[in-house]
Specification:
The structure is a single chain. With 266 residues, the chain is an alpha/beta fold. The protein has a single domain, classed as TIM Barrel, CATH 3.20.20.140. It is built from eight helices and eleven strands. Strands 1-2-3-4-7-8-9 form a seven-stranded parallel β-sheet. Helix 7 packs across helix 8. The termini are close together. 44% of the residues are buried. The model has no long low-confidence stretch (mean pLDDT 97). Bound molecules: zinc ion (2 copies). The site of one zinc ion has 5 residues, from loops.
């Protein structure tokens, strides 16, 4: 089943294209299920340039627009109403409230903030050379597992986004990956396998083969996604994603409907 469960729109301030344009591409690519998952508005002060997420007033319009597109799409591709929400530990209540304000099918949880550092923002890349890479990775995965356990999310998006710019600690990461996979399995959420990393300096699917294998052994379900920020990226790299999923040992992939997980054959 060809599914792309992570798609943005121009509302977030760093993507291009309207939902109808993304849908046209999804249809052309022969996708069976797509989820719009634009960035949930951030708490006050976290998005000073309005480039990380849609503005609070736009959330209702976004939901209405996706519903309209879903209606117009008919049977194929099927359109799910989703959202991508940042995990900011001290703003759990804010995030929970926003998520509860609409009947989403699927809620992606993302870690882009390590305290005040938006570690994947290309404008802040210099910070990487000032930091200890191993410490940043430890902090990232602690934050990811905390987010997974928060009860707010269905799927953890791009689960090793911390590698985006190619800063990877030396040595064997298998103990870290086993620990992360066990914690995510305990949390009862799925993880996303995303082609976005193929288009970034790390040139690798999120998550890496080693981390994905650990997730498979731990019994963590997976979704497939492009994280499209322009219509032409819809479905991009899904073949590579599906190959990685199969290589790791999976035979099923997941999607969510009214926040209930369904699994289908890969
Ligand atoms: Zn984005
Ligand atoms: Zn995204």
């Amino acid at each position: 089943m060809m599914m792309d469960l992570h798609i943005h729109t121009e509302r977030c301030g760093h993507a291009a294209g309207r939902p109808s344009e993304y849908l046209a591409e999804a249809r052309r690519a022969g996708l069976e299920i797509v989820a719009f998952t634009d960035h949930l508005p951030l708490p006050d002060g976290y998005d000073p340039d309005e480039e990380y997420a849609m503005r609070p007033a736009e959330l209702g319009e976004y939901v209405a627009e996706v519903r309209e597109v879903a209606h117009s799409s008919g049977a194929a591709p099927r359109v799910l109403l989703g959202i991508e929400a940042d995990w900011i530990p001290q703003h759990r209540a804010y995030t929970a409230g926003r998520i509860a304000s609409h009947a989403f099918d699927i809620v992606l949880g993302s870690v882009h903030f390590l305290d005040d550092w938006v570690f994947d923002d290309p404008r802040l890349i210099d910070e990487w050379s000032r930091r200890d890479v191993r410490d940043a990775w430890t902090h990232y995965f602690e934050t990811l597992t905390q987010a997974a356990s928060s009860g707010l999310f269905d799927v953890m998006a791009h689960p090793d986004l911390v590698k985006k710019f190619g800063y990877v600690p030396p040595g064997d990461l298998s103990a870290l990956y086993e620990e992360v996979a066990a914690a995510i399995a305990d949390a009862g959420v799925a993880i996303e396998v995303s082609s976005a990393g193929l288009r970034k300096p790390c040139r690798e699917i999120y998550p890496s083969d080693d981390l994905l294998s650990a997730f498979c052994r731990a019994g963590v379900p997976v979704t497939t996604a492009s994280d499209a920020h322009s219509p032409r990226e819809v479905g991009r790299g899904l073949t590579e994603v599906r190959d990685a999923v199969a290589r790791a040992g999976y035979t099923k992939i997941a999607y969510f409907e009214a926040r209930e997980m369904r699994e289908v054959a890969l």
